[in-house]
UniProtKB/TrEMBL annotation:
Protein name, as recorded: Pre-heme d1 synthase
PROSITE patterns membership: RADICAL_SAM (PS51918)
Any one Gene Ontology BP term: heme biosynthetic process
Species for this entry: Candidatus Venteria ishoeyi
Highest taxon, organism lineage: Bacteria
Gene designation: albA_2
Length: 378
């Protein structure tokens, strides 16, 4: 994940490079439930509206939570499926908050309404991310449910009225790329705190439908638009955050953009981006799925590292006898092709290994989602 806002802020007001903070444990994205009321075209968890047998019990979830806390995990992102369909979502959330985790809820928003908004507000979530993949019909078609857009927008408004920090999550594909500017306008009119541009990753239905991924040229246009919007927002004195995920080439593209628009700050930005270091799957990002299986990130559901029913997460996470984990934790990673020789490897860290794996069968091949030209990486 790349936080665009602080880096563009650095171009306007540079601050000294500080020693990098090293969190002890990773951020954990936890798919508490796989059931979902929607059936989105790109969904990595291949969720549907049915029960999935063998999901972790709430007691087991608490045991795992204790291990995560002791291991130094700072953030829990409660996800799914649709996490609001979990029967114990509020008690689980409350316990996580009481234990001092930063707790985020990752929801499609359609189940947030006047009846439960107070309960959601009372949880004190540090952040609620609501997915919106376009305006009106575009979103409904993407999410395969008529009325989904209206319901999610209503959720956005209810959260705003209840002072819950929210963000929109938008997955960019050919189906919705022309609506990207409208999404940024929506952010402004609804005064939303945060915007997360999620590049398509090749997991689950997202892999099956990977032909819908945007062409590299579309990605470049969207990223330039995002940088400009972020810059204008900062210049207007607003505090909105812009973030991207699933394509760490964004850091390198930002550097090239800065070279053009802020040449005197480019070296400074480069140092800051190298400190960020790009992709951190298997290092600072972890995933536990609904059955308790641990993965290097949410898009590696076809790759099991072990199950929290058998071994504590802390043990599984540190076990580098697994070849994928060993490679992900290596610095630099054992990359091949264009990624191995990339001049900016220190910034992007080799980008998204799942895409390389899904397209070529080898996790260490170059990432087909890297949209930089050969000139930009050599
Ligand atoms: C799996 S959903 C679970 C939470 C909730 N049901 C929702 O849709 O927001 C979490 C996030 O991952 C995004 N997502 C799902 N599959 C993806 C893929 N293949 N590539 C990129 N993002 C994806 C969704 O759009 C959503 O924002
Ligand atoms: S992306 Fe979210 S809302 Fe869509 S099917 Fe998957 S879990 Fe459900």
């Amino acid at each position: 994940m790349l936080r665009i806002t602080p880096y563009i802020q650095e171009l306007l007001n540079p601050t000294p490079l500080k020693p990098a903070r090293k969190p002890k444990g990773p951020v954990v994205i936890w798919n508490l439930i796989r059931r979902c009321n929607l059936m989105c075209k790109h969904c990595y968890s291949i969720s549907v509206d049915t029960d999935f047998p063998g999901e972790l019990s709430t007691d087991k979830i608490y045991t795992v939570m204790d291990d995560l806390k002791a291991f130094g995990v700072p953030v829990l992102i409660l996800s799914g499926g649709e996490p609001l369909m979990h029967k114990d979502i509020y008690t689980i959330s409350q316990r996580a908050k009481d234990m001092g985790f930063y707790v985020a809820l990752s929801t499609n928003g359609t189940l947030i309404n006047a009846d439960n908004i107070q309960q959601i507000a009372d949880m004190g979530y540090d952040y609620v991310g609501i997915s919106l993949d376009g305006i009106g019909k575009t979103h409904d078609q993407f999410r395969r449910q008529e009325g989904a857009f209206d319901a999610s927008l209503e959720a956005v408004r209810l959260c705003r009225q209840n002072n819950i920090k929210i963000g929109l999550r938008f997955t960019l594909t050919q189906d919705n790329q022309e609506q990207f500017p409208k999404m940024l306008e929506l952010l402004e009119t609804e005064e939303i705190d945060k915007f997360y541009l999620s590049h398509l990753n090749y997991g689950g239905r997202g892999n099956k439908n990977r032909k819908d991924d945007v062409y590299h040229q579309m990605t470049r246009q969207a990223m330039e638009k995002l940088f400009e919007t972020c810059l204008n927002t900062l210049r207007a004195g607003k505090t909105r955050e812009f973030v991207t995920g699933n394509n760490d080439a964004d850091g390198v593209f930002l550097l090239h953009w800065a070279k053009k628009h802020f040449p005197e700050q480019a070296a400074h930005l480069q140092a800051k981006l190298e400190q960020w270091g790009g992709n951190s799957s298997g290092v600072n990002i972890a995933n536990i799925d609904n059955l308790g299986t641990v993965h290097p990130d949410t898009f590696w559901w076809n790759y099991d590292l072990g199950n929290v029913q058998d071994r504590p997460f802390s043990e599984i996470w540190q076990d580098t006898s697994d070849p994928l984990m060993a490679g992900l934790k290596q610095n630099p990673r054992p990359l091949k092709g264009r990624c191995a020789s990339c001049k900016y490897l220190k910034i992007c860290g080799g980008n998204t290994r799942v895409r390389a794996y899904q397209v070529t069968g080898d996790a260490w091949n170059e990432d087909p989602g890297c949209y930089l030209s050969d000139e930009e990486v050599t």
